[in-house]
Design a protein that fits this description.
Largest sheet: 5 strands, mixed
CATH topology of the largest domain: Rossmann fold
Distance between the termini: 75 Å
Order of helices and strands: EHHEEHHEHEEEEEEEEEEEHE
Strand content: 25-35%
CATH class of the largest domain: Alpha Beta
Number of helices: 6
Length: about 325
Amino acid sequence: MLSTAYSPWFILLCLAVGAGYAALLYSAAAPWRRAVNYGLAALRFVVVSFLCFLLLSPFVKTTTTRTEAPTVVLAVDNSQSVSLFTPKPALDQLTAGLPQLAATLREKGFRVETRTLTKAEAAPDSLRFTADRTDLNRLLTDSREANADRNLAAVVLVSDGLVNQGQEPQFAAFNFPVFGVALGDTIAKKDLRLTDLVYNRVAFSGNKFPLEVEIAFEGYAGGAATVEVREGGRVLESQRVALPTGRRRLKTTFLLKAAAPGKRRYEVRVVPQAGEFTTLNNARTAFVEVVKGKLRVLLAGAAPHPDLKALRAAILANNNFDLTLSVAGVGAP
């Protein structure tokens, strides 16, 4: 549909301007025939009216209607804990029922997408519960971002609810309904598990670097656990940590010395205790690249300034940096 940026009534004004301009130029006696005079007047009327019409900023507006099928995402928690804590008959029922659910939804006109912790697109009939980390908030966020330009109707979250990475999903806001399918066992298992490692990926030879370990425990409150850091089967550090009553998680930190340059593999392990449900979650691996020498930093300034002093103090507080300060017109400190 043809429209303008201004009121359509201005089109009449454009026609009036064209007619007046043509009448003004061609109403007087002309040396040519009357038919030619009328023709020139009509041409002038059309051209002037069209030019005035262009001043109204005309545009063509079209409306397209497209019907898009609503999308349902089957978000499956394929972590190892699902297969570990879910009874086998229930797990078999899940793997057989998901393809049927997807087929039923497609028959009803839905677009179905299956996502897991490790794959953006997965087949519901070929799930493998092998993921070692569970970040349900990331799984739901990725589902939303992947369907930002689609009609996301709902997400079916299939999980045991055990999260060991990222934010708990109940504290996040989503603009789509989430339908949960509960797996696992509601009875807490007596267990020790190593849930997270925090460390720098790069360390400098000869320096010490921190390795933070997070331990979760169930059924061992009031006791103690032994945490070891190994390299090549050799125990580098060992700590005996108390498991306080009233808590289910704690953190402890190791200070390890970076040896010769190269890629180092450290295995952090919670020593198994009697009565543990499983020992598969007692260990994690850290990979650190040890480089030779310190990182050289040049701090340059056009003139002395308090910020330079503050930056110098902050950089020198880290033993991994070798600082050179250069200020125009000032000698080395």
